[in-house]
Write a structure and sequence with these properties.
Distance between the termini: 35 Å
Number of strands: 18
Organism: Candidatus Enterococcus willemsii
Strand content: 15-25%
Number of helices: 21
Protein name: Poly (Glycerol-phosphate) alpha-glucosyltransferase
Length: 559
């Protein structure tokens, strides 16, 4: 049985389900069929009928006529629609909170008939923010981009549009749908999670299996970004398969680290080997030695700079590889990278220096808080492997400085990792207090944050591990009362579980969404930032994978 025949049988079984969503108030019964293969953007076609059976028969007749090469198949039934004016439409666009957060499709009726799913609108950049929009800083003020609109209409309807004036004379509808996605073996009911996200149903019963799938396929996605030489494709803006040309040494090594975490979780030897290739490429192409200082270098607008975060992530990736494989070939590199942190990135007062210029002079004393937690966390991992007391003394200097200078005010995920790691080796009341404040002072914001924001899950998983240590700490009552402890524990675990669910329903490029972009095979099961043009960088994959792997291990254990 070929793919078309299999899916015809699946479609037949779906009709009765769709019939239960038939809205008697709609005079037009409209099915929308999205179909295509892994290599290119799917095609979308609508079918009208006076009855749901009539429009369904048209869909089935059309589908049977298609060649047997459609890996992707999604069916939407319009279940609700509202007539609006052109001014109402513009007002709806202006009310969209963030770029690409459109929650409705648009249907036009009159001289021209047009139907656009919300997925078509965003994946083809038909709605775009104004020129003053800055991601995360102001409203997008969305409008129709005529050039993108015209290009897509030409592709979809084979008609050349010359203006949007016909909108003024058209009947305009905002609509919502019920949808199913068909893969080779099964059909997936799609759920509307809000903010434009409509993916397969994910609930308490299948969250574990979904996360297992996402970790496996997401790690494979990251492996696919790794070239044979060990360098990554840095990222994409997927609407038009535009590569992000920058490169960043911090993100190179942190992505290798996340890949190693995933490989360990999946027990995948091939993935470990590919990670090694990335690690070796990084050391060969992103490092240099200056006056006995071993440094990881970067280019910023053509200028060489050296970042504390890059030193840290190189150590962390090397330590993870060593921990998994017991291969000690990177011990010397970890040691010299650590000595360079002490010599060049730390003042006599134990304050970190974030960025040096090509002459190893201070370029920026502070750039981003991530670097501080990364440095402590990575050196603790190196110490755990090498048992070098000089490294632990350096770690203690940093930990003491962070506590004394209230670094919990930054509410940073790397600091959460670091304090949990430090508590493996030395436990003090003030360290636990630091870790609790780092998590709890931000927890309401974390719970309400609408974007995927994967570092929030990382922060809470590390905090959850820390609070489990605190549970058996002999001086716990000096840190927190019993009542407050159990409230804090419940709150951290509750929000952690919610963030894992929110993250998987807002930032994973499932096939039912990837199909609408230009090159689905490149992005399927990757991870995206919807409000930043669906940006898909290797560090997005890194944070999603690390969060999911650590959450899954903590919550479900490792199979």
């Amino acid at each position: 049985m070929n793919i078309t025949e299999m899916k015809v049988n699946q479609l037949k079984q779906l009709f009765e389900t769709f019939a239960t969503y038939d809205n008697p108030n709609l005079s037009n019964k409209i099915f929308i069929l999205s179909y295509g293969n892994h290599e290119s953007r799917c095609q979308v076609k609508e079918f009208y009928g006076r009855t749901i059976q009539q429009s369904w028969d048209k869909l089935m007749s059309f589908y049977r006529s298609l060649p047997n090469e459609n890996n992707y198949l999604r069916v939407d039934l319009i279940t609700d629609e509202t007539v609006i004016t052109y001014d109402d439409l513009l007002a709806s666009f202006s009310e969209i909170k963030r770029n690409n957060y459109i929650t409705f499709g648009i249907r036009l009726e009159g001289f021209k008939k047009r139907v656009f799913l919300k997925e078509e609108l965003v994946a083809n950049a038909i709605l775009t923010p104004d020129k003053n929009h800055k991601v995360g800083q102001n409203a997008p003020n969305m409008t129709i981009d005529f050039n993108n609109y015209a290009a897509y209409v030409k592709k979809k309807y084979n008609v050349q549009e010359h203006s949007l004036n016909f909108l003024l004379k058209s009947k305009i509808y905002k609509f919502s749908t019920k949808a199913y996605f068909l893969d080779v073996n099964d059909s997936h009911e799609l759920e509307n999670y809000g903010l434009g996200n409509e993916f397969r149903v994910i609930d308490e019963d299948n969250l574990k299996s979904t996360l297992d799938l996402v970790i496996k396929e997401g790690a494979n996605y990251l492996v696919n970004q790794l070239h044979e030489d060990g360098k990554f494709t840095y990222g994409y803006f997927p609407c038009y398969d535009k590569q992000i040309r920058n490169y960043n040494s911090v993100r190179h090594f942190s992505s290798v680290y996340a890949l190693l975490e995933s490989a360990e979780f999946l027990n995948d030897e091939t993935m470990i080997q590919r990670s090694l290739e990335g690690l070796i490429w990084g050391f060969e192409h992103l490092s240099t030695t200056i006056d006995d200082n071993y440094l990881i270098k970067d280019q910023d607008r053509g200028e060489v700079e050296y970042k504390l975060g890059a030193q840290a992530m190189a150590i962390l990736a090397a330590a993870k590889y060593t921990q998994i494989t017991n291969d000690t070939q990177f011990f010397e590199k970890m040691k010299t990278l650590t000595h360079t942190i002490e010599n060049k990135f730390l003042t006599s007062e134990n304050k970190t220096i974030h960025v040096l210029n090509a002459e190893l002079e201070v370029k920026e004393a502070f750039r981003i808080i991530y670097y501080d937690g990364e440095a402590l966390f990575s050196m603790l991992r190196a110490y755990e492997l090498m048992h070098d007391e000089e490294i632990f003394a350096l770690c203690k200097r940093l930990m003491t400085y962070f506590v004394e200078n209230n670094y919990e005010k930054y509410r940073d995920h790397w600091l959460s990792y670091a304090v949990n790691e430090f508590l493996k080796h030395e436990q003090k009341n003030e360290y636990y207090q630091f870790g609790l404040k780092n998590a709890l002072s931000k927890i309401d914001f974390i719970e309400k944050r609408d974007t995927a924001y994967p570092t929030m899950l990382e922060l809470l998983v590390a905090a959850s591990k820390m609070i489990l240590k605190l549970e058996t700490y002999e001086h716990r009552s000096e840190v927190i009362s019993d009542e407050d402890f159990y409230q804090a524990k419940a709150r951290i675990f509750e929000v952690m579980e919610y963030r894992a669910y929110h993250q998987v329903t807002t930032g994973v490029m499932f096939p039912e969404f990837a199909m609408y972009f230009k090159a689905p095979h490149k992005i399927e099961y990757g991870f995206f930032a919807r409000h930043d043009r669906f940006r898909m960088r290797i560090d997005d994959a890194e944070h999603f994978l690390s969060g999911f792997v650590n959450f899954s291990e903590l919550t479900y254990g490792r199979d």
